[in-house]
Give the backbone structure.
Amino acid sequence: MHLYLSRRIKYLFRKYDWISIIVVLLILHCISAGLLLFFDYGAFAEETISKTLWKGTWWFFVTATTVGYGDIVPTTISGQIIAVFDMIFGIGLMYTIIGAGADKVIERRRRRMRGLSQLNLHEHIALLGGGAERKMRNLIKEIQSDPLYKGVELVVCSDHYDENPFNDDVEFVRGRIGDDDTLTRACVEQAKVVIIYGISDEETILTALAVDEINRSAFTTVYIRDRVNIKHIQRINKVRHAGIAGKRYGRIRVITRINDLMLAREISNPDLSEAILQLMNRKTGNTFYSIEAWPEHDCALQLPAVRQMLRATDAHALLVGVRRFEDGSICTNPPEDLEVNSNDHLFVIAAHRPVIEWTPLLETAQRTDIRHP
């Protein structure tokens, strides 16, 4: 019988690890505590059974944690002998619980660093893909330094890193960026912004199709290397614009390389590429920003009034282009007779992102150029 019990306990230890150890130690403690109260009841006796049990429990925790206040002490030899076993079981129980908790924390941390955990994120930024660590670090730094996304959590999904190579405030999910499991663990369905930066255009396009299926509401941007492949993203955008189940969705934005175009333009326009790169770099001062025109007001405004409002902001912004909300068309260096509608996007050059209170500005402009539809 003793051999059978010994084998069963060893089997439970192998199968259930620390959980079974804690259960066994608790059972042994309960047995020894019951015997202790039976043989040395006088040391723990109180006016009610609940207070007596609490006093015994207090003694156990003080003893098991090796604090040893000495306010409660078994007085009989039988009680002291049983207390010795209770100390052994109690100290073992405490160390097992602490060790199990530490082991769980370490294991959870290890799985998180290796990108194997299921995240629980909402309204976050999902960066799918990436290869060169230096480029990814620059991209992440640029996103995190934008005041518009201050405090927004960022998760990187990639199968090119064995562990999270970035700082602790960036979550990491390891896996192929187009796989359902990877997108699920990264909570892409709940993401606010999705950036797709595949190693190849094929990977990027397939991932864009997967993201389009699970989250069409997110602001989605893709990086396409070969302009020939932009047509595949445009097909998705046509379906989104036409409407799905009676609802229209915003288009997927496409970013592509401009270096080859700049090679030809640089010949007849010296230093043009340097000026463009400077406008793209936040560190050098003025850079490009995109601002939504008075989203909470249903009105239209002539371009000169819009220029005047932007110049009056703290960023002293310069308007260089407008993207129409209705059809997505872009007009750079727009003519003075252009009428800007609410929800159009204004492309400006400014020292920082302009903070605009549209209501007072529109009230002032209403006396001059504003037109209500």
